[in-house]
Structure to design on (241 residues):
């Protein structure tokens, strides 16, 4: 689950508890509900969103154990994550992920769906695990990553080497915005970035529309997930999630 706190014009969304924050429908619905609340409260006042998490993990990706008992659950998880990313892309304010633990696969994608990614450097890594667990990366994952990682070599290492990237290396590769000494300092730095952005007094709707233009190739890709099409049409186990 998650909590939502408002500090002035800054919203802080926290994935709660000390587990892996696996992206099952319960957690995805909780985050989406928080975003809908933010959207409903946002008027003309400039605001910003920070997403962070308790414990060792930011998010360890899809809840594959939950989905094993019913192949159609993979479809549901994919649909809900795609909807959540669509909401983040259209949110009328700057967004910042304060990654205070491991962010793997779908959890890494959730972080990268924010405008800025800050990480702690004393513990944790970002990691696209699909190669190591014999799964194919969805096309929409790759399109989002191409918009966030400018270096082809860095993108190759993330997707085709399944590299576990620490915060300092991620800064060097241009994958994240900045690295910080601890969980607390990462969140504090995210608040500072949010405060600086809020001071610009940008029109939130214009900001959101510009982001949608920037991610113009990502939005159509969010309409489907080809890695679960075999489940949808054949009702068999997902071979390419």
């Amino acid at each position: 689950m998650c909590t939502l706190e408002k500090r002035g014009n800054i919203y802080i969304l926290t994935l709660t508890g000390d587990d892996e924050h696996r992206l099952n429908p319960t957690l995805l619905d909780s985050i989406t509900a928080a975003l809908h609340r933010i959207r409903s409260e946002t008027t003309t006042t400039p605001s910003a969103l920070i997403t962070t998490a308790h414990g060792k993990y930011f998010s360890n990706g899809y809840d594959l154990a939950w989905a094993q008992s019913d192949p159609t659950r993979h479809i549901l998880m994919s649909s809900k994550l795609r909807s959540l990313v669509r909401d983040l892309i259209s949110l009328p304010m700057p967004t910042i992920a304060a990654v205070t633990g491991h962010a793997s696969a779908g959890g890494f994608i959730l972080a990268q769906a924010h405008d800025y990614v800050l990480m702690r450097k004393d513990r944790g890594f970002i990691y696209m695990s699909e190669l190591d667990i014999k799964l194919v990366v969805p096309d929409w994952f790759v399109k989002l990553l191409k918009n966030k990682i400018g270096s082809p070599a860095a993108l190759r290492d993330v997707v085709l080497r399944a590299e576990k990237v620490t915060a300092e290396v991620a800064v060097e590769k241009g994958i994240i915005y900045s690295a910080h000494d601890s969980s607390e300092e990462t969140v504090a730095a995210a608040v500072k970035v949010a405060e600086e952005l809020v001071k610009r007094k940008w029109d939130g709707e214009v900001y959101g529309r510009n982001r949608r233009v920037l991610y113009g190739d990502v939005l159509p890709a969010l309409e489907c997930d080809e890695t679960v099409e075999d489940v949808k049409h054949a009702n068999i186990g997902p071979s390419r999630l």
